[in-house]
Amino acid sequence: MVIVMQSNASEAQIEGVIHALEKHGYEAHRSDGKASTVIGAVGVGIDYDHRHLTLLPGVRSVKRISEPFKLASRGFHPDNSVYTIGNVTIGGPEVIMMAGPCAVESREQVDVIAEHVAKAGAKVIRGGAFKPRTSPYSFQGLGEEGLRYLRDAADRNGLIVVSEVMDRTQIPLLCEYSDILQIGARNMQNFTFLKELGKAEKPILLKRGIAATLEELLMSAEYIMSSGNQQVMLCLRGIRTFGTHTRNTLDIAAIPVLHSITHLPVIVDPSHAVGIRDKIPPVARAAVAAGCDGLLIEVHHNPEDALCDGPQALYPETLVKLMGEVRAIATAVGRHFD
Ligand code: PEP
Ligand code: MN
User: Fold this and answer.
1) Same domain, 119 and 49
2) Do the Cβ atoms of 66 and 14 come closer than 8 Å?
3) Tag placement on the chain: N or C end, fewer CB within 10 Å?
4) For residue 45, what pLDDT band results from cuts at 50, 70 and 90?
């Protein structure tokens, strides 16, 4: 932390700041400049709320230097985290396509889509069996039955599964059927749930909340990691802004920013970010160009009749075309799709 004192701060006020820092375990390094005194605070004080300092008399500004997340930070783990799940490796040079319906609707629906996405080159099938819907009157998902259909379809097509877990009571069920547990945007800061996920022995795909900063996203990852589960992937799925031209706004710059501050893989979900079928492929291409480690995309063979998010589902043939495009882009930026 760096504390800048006001130019007319008295000696007693400077001493007051130093005393407060030392009391909370910091080492204080004072430097008297012509314009003002600056105090550098070095130490552990991980739980110290720096706003206490801003309230002390004579203080002009307080700036935190170190990140509040540790296990998720690039400083703690300089190499990229790479997870091998079945025959899929996430976080390495290969960019991974995760595709499938928003919701599992029937055995037939997921069978048809699994075959399409596997043929297109996806390695992971997505599909919600438990759906977080804004309205309680909307389709809520098939539950365990849906997970069974998804697992069977994945196994028949050599895919692995990502599916959402909405609360702690569902964790054992999701661990039984899914290879990756998806945590939805709405649950990103459900801290007691995150701690429970820390005890699960499956990789976690943690989605960014609609109004969450990157620091908040990483602090949520830290909850899972500090509870024992180191296999966390981050997912950017759009945030709420003043723009109304798309469902949400994809913060593309967050991809390289996250790569510089964390070792965790970054997956981009352009479907929920954009929400309009024909605008999704260009944004998916941009995400690969910006360095994402994977894409999570909704696909449906009959989106007009989909029970959830039909207007943002790509047709299977659009996924095939997109795969060709992102392959070329990945190569251009030193990555590859298999
Ligand atoms: C989903 O992926 O189906 C989903 C509900 O996503 P989000 O939590 O990002 O809204
Ligand atoms: Mn959806």
Assistant:
1) no
2) no
3) C
4) low
